[in-house]
Amino acid sequence: MNMRMTTLMVLASTVGALSGCAVQQPSPGCQIQDGLWQVTYIPKNPEAVSRSCGTLTADQFGVYKYMVPVSEEPQAPTSVALRPLAAVALTTYVDTSGTRRPRVTLNPPADSSSPTDPTGSLRASALATALSAFADEPDDQDVCLAPSFSRITIEARAVADASGGPLPARTVDYQFANVSVYSSPSAPGTTFEGSLVFGDGSCTAEYRVLGLSPAVPCGTTDDCRNPALGINPELDVVCLHGGCSPNPARAFPFLE
């Protein structure tokens, strides 16, 4: 057998061995869509709806994933932020002069010489952010967990709005926990389910929290099935409280 024939046989056997092996694709890691989400609140105790803290139905959240480069701070975990827009709206107001100002106490006070935030309204808005560590890789069910969030507490003082009308004082408190994000190749971080303990200064109530990205307004469930809206067609989605939501009658991750 000459050298050329030997080389061809070795190459053929190598190709055959490789063709019999599945090529492992690198994992994209835990994904969650950045931007505006539609969120539905389901009271865990039906009796809570008769109390002031039990009346939450829906909101929109800003949802953001943060990753610190390993070269900068190797010990810092990946994190995810939830920003309920109802809480964000309580942190600032526009006064009769047309200037946006904080409704909350800032410590230290606003720095009027700041070129980017002279009134402190940006710092005030940041208070409506809940942060949690976020898993780097999905589990064997394609679920990524954000287990424990920082608390959002907003104590908005009574003020007059731009028209001179009164905005009464309000207190809200959000404690999110155990937010599970479904992150698979077919649904890369477009739904979540978690828990919330919400307080309004008078009482507290527990909620099941369902999130869908993107946030899409609706009048009927058929509106949510329009493929042009960008909602994953594999998800069971219904119209609730004017927004497309994961179907609360179906278990997470709300797949059809």
Short description:
Residues 1-24 form the signal peptide. The chain has 256 residues and is mainly beta.
Fold and architecture overview:
This is Lipoprotein mlpA. It comes from Cystobacter fuscus (strain ATCC 25194 / DSM 2262 / NBRC 100088 / M29). Residues 108-121 have a biased composition (Low complexity). This protein is mainly beta and 256 residues long. The chain has one domain. 12% of the residues lie in helices and 36% in strands. It contains 3 helices and 15 strands. It has helices at 3-19, 85-91, 121-126, and strands at 35-43, 58-66, 79-84, 92-94, 100-102, 130-133, 143-148, 152-156, 159-160, 166-167, 170-183, 188-199, 204-212, 237-240, 243-246. The strands form 4 sheets. Strands 1, 2, 3, 6, 7, 8, 11, 12 and 13 form a 9-stranded antiparallel sheet that branches. Strands 4-5 form a two-stranded antiparallel sheet. Strands 9-10 form a two-stranded antiparallel ribbon. The longest helix is centred in the first third of the chain and has 17 residues, at 3-19. The termini are far apart.
Q: What is the strand content? A: 35-45%
Q: What is the count of structural domains?
A: 1
Tell me about the largest β-sheet. 9 strands, antiparallel
Secondary structure category: mainly beta
- The portion of residues assigned to helices is 10-25%
Along the chain, the helix and strand elements come as HEEEHEEHEEEEEEEEEE
Mean pLDDT equals 90
Count of extended strands: 15
Which shape, going by the Cα principal axes? globular
Q: Helix tally? A: 3
Intertermini distance: 61 Å
Segments where pLDDT lies below 50 for 5+ residues? 3-12, 14-22
Calculate Rg over CA atoms: 24 Å
